Amino acid sequence: MLCPKCNQPCSDKATECRHCGIIFSKYYRLMEERAERRANASEVKVIDTTGSRIREVKQLLFEVEDEVNPFVFWGRIVLFVIIVIYGAKFCLASIASNYAGQSFLHLVNLPFHEAGHVLFTPFPRLLTSLGGTLGQLLIPLICMFAMLLQARNPFGASICFWWFGQNFFDIAPYINDARSLSLPLLGGNVGSRSPYGFHDWEYILGETGLLRYDHFLAGTAVAVGMMIFFLAYAWGAYLLFRQYQNL
Question: Looking at the whole model, is its pTM more than 0.90?
Answer without folding.
Answer: no
